[in-house]
């Protein structure tokens, strides 16, 4: 395995346990019956009852199982052994039918041969991918003709600015066009600042990179949406609004985007 991806795998195997215990992920609420999906994806993906759904980079499966609770036939894939083991344990404990497979996303076609009505991914998935074009090809390969791919993700503009404690305004520290790999040293976990996780390697993509990769993979873009409200307090100076989303005063940049892209039906001959 690529040493960069091996370092990321080690970090995410550690983070699976940290995140399951953190309040950020709301495992206790999920166990009590709550759906932990966000309003954006619930509204835009729509009714999933009776549909097959693949969740790529599913972590320990709470979003996947939330889709199962709304009626989807769910498969989740993640590269973390610990995350998949935890997902399977929660699924069995709560009797939520879902299939979970452990695989690096680039190797997923070797272990999963199905196609799905919906292929889904969200929030914090793209930055772990060294090859966006190959990722898009794999995502498209899992979509049934007539089905669709959907993603909700943090906007790349949020990655340009400092967000450390004490930051009081947008302070752009890298260019939007800087797409080289970034190595992050060991530091506090984003969901529990008392826990230190190992170094990780991340990649930044422009919005055009993502859209172009999906289109080149044969998917037809139905929409690209951008949102000012963020699902968590990405910057210390954000304020939480009545809808639960976090805003920057004046909404100067989008913080989240979503894409829906459909695979055309095979032409009849």
CATH level-4 homologous superfamily? Vaccinia Virus protein VP39
What CATH calls the topology is Rossmann fold
| Biggest sheet character | 7 strands, mixed
Poorly predicted tracts of residues: none
Structural class: alpha/beta
Q: Give the termini separation.
A: 44 Å
Tell me the strand order in the biggest sheet. 3-2-1-4-5-13-10
CATH class: Alpha Beta
Radius of gyration: 18 Å
Percent helix: 25-40%
Counting H and I runs of at least 4 residues, what is the number of helices? 8
Number of strands: 13
Q: Which term fits the overall shape?
A: globular
Mean pLDDT: 95
CATH architecture: 3-Layer(aba) Sandwich
- When the domains are counted, the total is 1
Q: Any key phrases for this structure?
A:
Rossmann fold; two-stranded antiparallel sheet; alpha/beta; 269 residues; 29% helix
Describe this structure as you would to a colleague:
With 269 residues, the chain is α/β, with parallel strands linked by helices. It has a single domain, classed as 3-Layer(aba) Sandwich (Rossmann fold). Helix content is 29%, strand content 23%. The protein has eight helices and 13 strands. The chain has helices at residues 3-21, 27-31, 39-45, 62-69, 81-94, 108-111, 132-141, 207-216; strands spanning 52-56, 73-78, 99-102, 116-122, 143-154, 182-184, 187-188, 196-197, 200-202, 220-227, 239-240, 246-247, 256-262. A seven-stranded mixed beta sheet has the order 3-2-1-4-5-13-10, with helices on both faces. A two-stranded antiparallel ribbon has the order 6-9. Strands 7-8 form a two-stranded antiparallel ribbon. β7 and β8 (196-197) form a beta hairpin. α1 (3-21) runs parallel beside α5 (81-94) and α7 (132-141) crosses α8 (207-216). The mean pLDDT is 95.
């Amino acid at each position: 395995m690529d040493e960069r991806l091996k370092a990321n795998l080690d970090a995410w195997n550690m983070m699976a346990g940290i995140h399951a215990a953190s309040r950020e992920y709301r495992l206790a609420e999920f166990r009590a019956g709550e759906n932990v999906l966000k309003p954006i994806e619930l509204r835009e993906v729509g009714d999933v009852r009776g549909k097959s759904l693949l969740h790529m980079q599913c972590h320990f499966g709470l979003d996947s199982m939330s889709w199962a609770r709304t009626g989807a036939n769910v498969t989740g894939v993640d590269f973390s052994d610990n995350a998949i083991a935890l997902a399977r344990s929660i699924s069995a404990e709560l009797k939520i039918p879902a299939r979970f497979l452990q695989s690096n996303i680039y190797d997923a076609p070797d272990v999963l041969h199905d196609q799905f009505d919906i292929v889904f991914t969200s929030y914090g998935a793209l930055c772990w991918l060294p090859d966006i074009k190959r990722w898009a090809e794999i995502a498209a390969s899992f979509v049934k003709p007539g089905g669709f791919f959907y993603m909700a993700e943090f906007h790349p503009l949020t990655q340009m600015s400092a967000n450390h404690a004490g930051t009081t305004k947008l302070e752009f520290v890298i260019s939007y066009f800087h797409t080289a790999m970034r190595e992050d040293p060991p530091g506090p976990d984003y969901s529990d600042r008392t826990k230190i996780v190992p170094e990780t390697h991340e990649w930044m993509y422009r919005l055009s990179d993502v859209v172009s990769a999906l289109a080149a993979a044969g998917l037809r873009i139905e929409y690209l949406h951008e949102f000012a409200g963020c699902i968590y307090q990405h910057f210390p100076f954000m304020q939480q609004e009545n809808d639960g989303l976090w805003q920057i005063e004046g909404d100067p940049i989008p913080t989240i985007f979503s894409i829906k892209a459909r695979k055309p039906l095979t032409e009849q001959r």
